[in-house]
Amino acid sequence: MSARDAKHGVVDPDLLVKGVLRIIDASRKPVIPSAHMAAAAYAIGERGAENLKQTWM
């Protein structure tokens, strides 16, 4: 994940692949967290759901 206007990275903070495709999946995480992976996956899913709601509602 990188900043919105950065040249590096693939996914921006809104979970968009360079503004084209939304990725709401744990595979976009650059490193595996030391905590339980399910918690990180749930957090990504919650953030993605909120982003989708803001975009389409």
From TrEMBL:
The organism's place on the tree of life at top rank: Eukaryota
SUPFAM superfamilies on file: FAD/NAD(P)-binding domain
Domain Glucose-methanol-choline oxidoreductase C-terminal: 1-45
Cofactor(s) in the UniProt record: FAD
InterPro entries to which the protein is assigned, alphabetical: FAD/NAD-bd_sf, GMC_OxRtase_C
Parts of the chain that traverse the membrane: none
GO terms for MF: oxidoreductase activity, acting on CH-OH group of donors
Protein name: Glucose-methanol-choline oxidoreductase C-terminal domain-containing protein
The organism of origin for this protein: Mycena albidolilacea
